[in-house]
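Deliverable D2.4 — example input (structure tokens):
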């Protein structure tokens, strides 16, 4: 679930409970075959009958509402499984049925992990939220923020540390799921949910293809930044959808952005003076996607230049070029489509 989607449910929950109203929370923790929402989607019900969010396209919320009312009446937290038939799926616009698993509980506004979730989202910090869903830890939470001590508790200090280490890879895949931990007190199931910073797409070189990529990237929800020292090309008229326009040489501009491993950098300047420093900076920052426009000769020359700058062979091999998927792209819009398709594929762990 995206941070924005999580806030859309967390904000009404906080508002309801701040006014003294109890609330129940349902979290989608698993999905098989066709499902309209990804694990991490949430549906909330207040004691006053207010609703927020969803975990499906509407086919199970009615039943979940009843279960959450029972939770508010004192029933224990539990896991629910729904099998969606093909007929039910067709009614809500799906091609086929599937199965989803949902965890229902009473929302605890005093849980320190929830407060830490809000802070991590506001500060754009990568984090993993772990929620106990069985084995006597139902409803317990633990938030692991990169570079900070964990907040909350699931089992015990050593076992929680093991869970956090096993959950960390989800920050790279962006996928939520269930972890199983067997310890002295038995087996517990924990729902692992990565909370990633906003997806950032950084474009170096204010070309015509860059303008098309900026438009398409913004449409897909990326926070797009464009870096170029040439003010004549870097104008708001050409890049109306950009979150930031940075008139600077690549090393300085990318440094100002503050690249990290969650950023995607696409170099479209086709100018050695801009390309090489941009590639070197992006590789040094460990960005998950680094792409370079240009044919085979350009790719060879840029890689040779990086080697001359002392960049290691393993890092150079991470440069994707010619940039984008091979779809026979010719126009700026087609090139943008090919690039963004590859960026999304890498973000989702596809080859």
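Example output (designed residues):
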């Amino acid at each position: 679930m995206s941070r924005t989607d999580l806030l859309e449910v967390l904000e009404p929950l906080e508002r309801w409970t701040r006014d003294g109203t109890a609330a129940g929370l349902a979290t989608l923790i698993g999905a098989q075959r066709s499902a309209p929402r990804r694990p991490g989607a949430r549906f909330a019900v207040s004691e006053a009958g207010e609703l927020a969010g969803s975990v499906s396209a509407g086919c199970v919320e009615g039943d979940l509402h009843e279960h959450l009312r029972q939770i508010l009446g004192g029933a224990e937290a539990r896991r629910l499984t729904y099998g969606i038939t093909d007929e039910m799926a067709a009614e809500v616009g799906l091609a086929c049925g599937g199965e989803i698993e949902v965890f229902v509980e009473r929302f605890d506004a005093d849980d320190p992990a929830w407060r830490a979730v809000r802070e991590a989202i506001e500060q754009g910090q990568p984090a993993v939220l772990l929620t106990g869903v069985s084995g006597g830890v139902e409803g317990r939470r633990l938030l692991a923020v990169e570079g900070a001590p964990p907040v909350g508790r699931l089992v015990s200090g050593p076992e929680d540390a093991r869970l956090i280490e096993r959950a960390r890879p989800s920050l790279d895949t962006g996928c939520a799921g269930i972890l199983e931990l067997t310890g002295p007190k038995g087996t517990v199931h924990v729902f692992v949910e990565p909370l990633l910073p906003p997806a950032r797409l950084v474009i170096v070189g204010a070309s015509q293809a860059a303008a098309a990529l900026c438009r398409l990237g913004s449409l897909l929800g990326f926070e797009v930044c464009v870096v170029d020292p040439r003010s004549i090309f870097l104008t708001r008229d050409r890049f109306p959808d950009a979150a930031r326009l940075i008139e600077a040489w690549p090393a300085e501009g990318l440094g100002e952005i503050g690249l990290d491993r969650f950023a995607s950098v696409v170099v479209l300047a086709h100018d050695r003076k801009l390309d090489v420093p941009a590639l070197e900076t992006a590789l040094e920052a460990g960005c998950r996607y680094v792409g370079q426009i240009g044919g085979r000769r350009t790719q060879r020359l840029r890689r040779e230049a990086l080697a001359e700058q002392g960049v290691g062979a393993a890092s150079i091999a991470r440069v994707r070029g010619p940039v984008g998927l091979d779809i026979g792209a010719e126009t700026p819009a087609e090139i943008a489509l090919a690039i963004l398709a590859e960026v999304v594929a890498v973000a989702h762990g596809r080859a």
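The mean pLDDT is 90.
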